Amino acid sequence: MSESERKARAERLAALRAAGLDPYPARVGPLLRLAEIRRHHDAKDVAALDAAALQVRVAGRVLAIRSFGKLVFMTLFEDGVQLQASFRKPELSPEVLALLALVDVGDFVRAEGVLWRTRTGELTVGARALAVVAKCLHPLPEKWHGLVDVERRYRQRYLDLLVNPEARRIAVTRSRSVTALRAFLDGRSFLEVETPVLQPLYGGAAARPFVTHYDVYDQDVYLRISDELYLKRLVIGGFDRVYEIGHNFRNEGVSRKHNPEFAMMECYQAYADYRDMMELVQAMLQHVVSAVTGGTRVAYREQQIEFGGAWPQLAIRDGILERTGVDVLAAADFATLRARVIEKGLDAGDAPTWGQLVDHLFSLHVEPTLVQPTFVTDYPVELSPLAKRSLTDPRLVERFELFVGGMELANAFSELNDPADQRGRFEEQRRAKAAGDAEAHPLDEEFLLAMEHGMPPTGGLGVGIDRVVMVLCDAAHLREVLLFPYMKPGE
User: Fold this and answer.
1) Which of 225, 206, 210 is nearest to 264 (CA)?
2) Does a structural domain hold residue 322?
3) Is residue 27 within 8 Å of 133, Cβ to Cβ?
4) Taking the model in full, what pTM does it have?
5) Looking at the structure, do residues 176 and 93 belong to the same domain, yes or no?
6) What whole-number distance in Å separates Cα of residue 212 and Cα of residue 361?
7) Over 60: is that where the pLDDT of 491 sits?
8) Does the residue 285 lie in any domain?
9) Structural domain contains residue 145
10) For residue 146, pLDDT beyond 60
């Protein structure tokens, strides 16, 4: 904002106060919403409006002011809806005429008058009364062309939402997606619950946590990386179908698919396995897509993604073999697999274990190719310390990840419920952490104690809400679907 603009707005604010007007009143009085006026009167012609002589009182942010001699038009904006107000100067009182000169684009105003239609057919409030209800001290960007700096869009999201209809559409789509997801689970008799965000011990995923300190107990605590271990306690406690929609926090890098704070839906169903969770997540996402878009097909990154019908399954071994020629199950240990990868001229990365090298090969060569909804199954056991082992190969677990648009949207297990096996897995993770794996799962004695009281066979599922919305909105970056993404410190 230029110094002259800042000074001019400050002077108009001072003039309002000097005239005895409160530029930030506590009460506005009864109003008609712009959407309601549009809904009831948009279809009425000039004759119908003139005959009705409907007096309305409205409020909104001023998006534009246009002056044509003795006639002034303002475009008002309220909750995504615009409506024009007009002011005929010869018909205004001296007080309203003086106030009109003190209104800036960006101000919130209240206007009162009779509905009419202009020669161009625009529904308009012919205002005789005017009040400023909140003064704006900064100019608004000139629609989208005035806010092209991507970082500024994210840091000042309130401006982005005002001038960029796409940003507003994404925010509305996100809300409707969560509403549809919640309605689906409620319809299947799941109980929505809340679990702790601050935890004495993090767990439920392979990730580095954020650490904070609880002064009262002089204790380090963690922002949760997953809801899993607390939701399983509820299953042990007799709630057979539970879910939570909330935020998790992982101390990791930022990318187009990652943000340190992200939204997840996690649910657990007693007497179910990962096959049951396949059916659940497919029906769930088909419901969400239909509720939000009205169909089954979504355009994402120049691809048409079809959510209808049955979704294929792909074993992680088969996907890697097809894309690289490496059979990971034939290379039974880390050294053999790494040698085979290098022999093929492929990037082995810095993965320290067999399972992590398998994951590296899959992420690099297979994941980007999975555009249509695909269930990837049979993950290495060392990547899944909370999942049941496969009945056909003890190196693998009963787990799937759902991929859409080249990225993971969901993750599910047949949940491990044998406390002795679970303790052994935790011990393996502890050794991995001691060897330098910062994301290895800690040993949680409290969770093991709960499991020793008996946990029924259970299927668990996590769905990344942010990524689902990315696909539904054709968003290239996760930050597009977060109202307030975390930003590195700026000047």
Assistant:
1) 225
2) no
3) no
4) 0.91
5) no
6) 35
7) no
8) yes
9) no
10) no
131 shares a domain with 98: yes
Question: What is the Cα–Cα distance from 217 to 330, expressed in whole angstroms?
Answer: 52
Q: Are 180 and 292 in contact (CB under 8 A)?
A: yes
Task: Say if residue 288 is in the same domain as residue 379.
Answer: yes
The b-or-e profile of 299-314 (16+ CB within 10 A means b, else e) is: ebeeeebebeeebeeb
The C-alpha atoms of residue 452 and residue 217 are separated, in whole angstroms, by: 28
pLDDT tens digits for 211-258?
999 999 999 999 999 999 999 999 999 999 999 999 999 998 888 999
Domain count, the chain: 2
- List the CATH number of the domain containing 33: 2.40.50.140
Domain that holds residue 65: 3-140
Which of 469, 489, 472, 471 lies closest to 264, judged by CA?
469
Q: Describe the crossing of helices 465-473 and 274-293 by its angle, rounded to 10 degrees.
A: 40
Claim to verify: residue 90 and residue 172 sit in the same structural domain:
no
Residues with Cβ within 8 Å of residue 275, at least 6 apart in sequence: none
- Which amino acid is residue 427, in one-letter code? E
Per the CB < 8 A criterion, the answer to whether 230 and 203 are in contact is no
Any domain includes 357: no
CA–CA distance from 236 to each of 198, 225, 413, 463 (Å)?
A: 21, 21, 17, 22
Q: Which amino acid is at 259?
A: N
The 10 Å Cβ neighbour count of residue 340 is 19
Clarify whether residues 275 and 387 are in a common domain. yes
Query: Do 387 and 294 fall within a single domain?
Result: yes
Domain of 227, CATH number, reads 3.30.930.10
| Mean predicted confidence (pLDDT) in 344-372 | 94
Adjacent-strand bridge partners of 266: 244, 462
Same domain for 112 and 169, yes or no, is: no
Residue type (1 letter), 3: E
Provide the pLDDT for residue 145: 53
| Per-residue model confidence (pLDDT) at position 438 | 82
For the record, the structure tokens of 10 come out as 């400050």
Task: Return the pLDDT at 144.
Answer: 46
Does 133 share its domain with 177? no
* pLDDT value at 147 more than 70: no
